[in-house]
Specification:
Length: 384
């Protein structure tokens, strides 16, 4: 096997060792003009240079699909990042969940103005939290004030916690109880704060409204109709099926460990899906292209409010979908994601015609997230 390669507009573009070997026999002559640098590969290399183990990216537009990779699939080896490898997409899952809720709204089975109490009687009570005062819209928009459950999950917060509880299975009800140990961040509707608990509750409402699990509804309403063959909800399975790179997390220390094995049941509805850059690109294009939601529901999803807590200048948040400024003017829609070492950033133009998705397999270093954001913004601005 040679070094990693990638396919671009129907031709194989070699990178790494294979490219270096080929260059020896194809060096430009006095009359030959050097080929222009590939902007996508340059941006992927820039992400890798911030300290990540592996990087992969895909950019699509009508009639084109560009991919680029850098780094390795496993630390300490020369194994290249897999072509269209699977990874845990983390909070990008929230866009899938919101889309299912909005489909139910379009069918008249759920209203965005319904209270949590109407669907989940007595579930959100205690320490000042009150589901009678919180609407479905506020869950999806992160304006509910419900505290985040993430700090209560040992496997996500320390290396010792990961080793002890990486195979622990949670129920959504158990997770909500853990979150409600704390008072609300603010009265419902009076602020904005990112909370994974909101989407656990949204998954529970999907179950109540349909009589079927969140995973079944996401599969039958989105994954199967769009042909997302490499996307799925793993349930309590701790493995990433199919071709994938390992993931690494440092837990805010100087040393990272392999965290590929994980029961992600703590992230049902909020972050547990496994997918690929190709499938995420198809999903975003279908969503903004109007193939998943009726115009009224897509308008609800893309009606945004300021989200200053995210610390990204100009960022706003709709219903399971962020709106971010483009460097060339205007804005795009998308969602970052993270679940133990797998960090992703995906975006799509407002008309659904161009997508950019990238992910890394470790926490990286200073500037990693900015480099990922830069890749998505610049690629969405670039004329194919």
């Amino acid at each position: 096997m040679h070094g990693p390669g990638r396919r671009r507009r129907g031709r194989l573009v070699l990178t790494g060792l294979a490219a270096a070997l080929l260059a020896v026999s194809t060096a430009p002559t006095a009359t030959a003009k050097p080929r222009p640098a590939d902007p996508l590969q340059q941006r992927v290399d820039a992400i890798h240079d911030t300290g990540t183990v592996g990087v992969s990216a895909e950019v699509t537009s009508p009639h084109t699909r560009d991919i680029a990779r850098a780094g390795t699939a496993r630390r300490g080896t020369a194994r290249p990042m897999p072509q269209n490898g699977r990874f845990r997409i983390g909070s990008a899952t929230k866009t899938f969940t919101a889309a299912v809720v909005l489909q139910l709204v379009g069918e008249g089975r759920v209203s965005l103005d319904d209270t949590v109490e109407q669907w989940l009687p007595g579930v959100v009570r205690g320490n000042g939290n009150d589901g009678r005062r919180i609407t479905v819209r506020q869950l999806l928009q992160h304006t509910s004030g419900i505290p985040d459950v993430l700090p209560e999950i040992p496997a996500l917060n320390s290396a010792d916690g990961y080793r002890a509880e990486r195979l622990r299975t949670y129920t959504p009800e158990e997770l909500v109880r853990l979150a409600l140990r704390h008072p609300p961040t603010f009265p419902a509707g009076s602020g904005w704060s990112y909370s994974n608990t909101n989407y656990l509750l949204a998954a529970m409402i999907i179950h109540e409204a349909t009589g079927r699990s969140w995973a079944q509804e996401v599969t039958d309403r989105i994954i199967r109709p769009l042909g997302l063959k490499d996307t799925g909800a793993p349930g309590a399975s701790p493995s990433v099926p199919g071709p994938h790179a390992h993931s690494y997390a440092a837990f805010r220390t100087g040393t990272s460990i392999d965290v590929t094995v994980l029961d992600s049941s703590m992230a049902v509805g909020s972050g547990s899906l496994i997918s690929t850059t190709r499938d995420l690109s198809r999903f975003y294009a279908a969503l903004l292209g109007g193939r998943l939601l009726a115009p009224a529901q897509l308008d609800e999803m893309t009606a945004t409010v300021p989200a200053p807590e995210l610390g990204i200048p100009g960022v706003r948040y709709g219903l399971g979908l962020g709106e971010l400024p483009l460097p060339c003017g205007g804005s795009y829609f998308g969602h970052p994601g993270e679940l133990l070492g797998y960090h992703s950033w995906g975006g799509v133009t407002a008309d659904g015609t161009r997508t950019a998705v990238t992910y890394v397999t470790s926490d990286g270093g200073q500037g990693t997230q900015q480099a990922m954001s830069t890749l998505v913004g610049e690629e969405l601005c670039r004329t194919p």
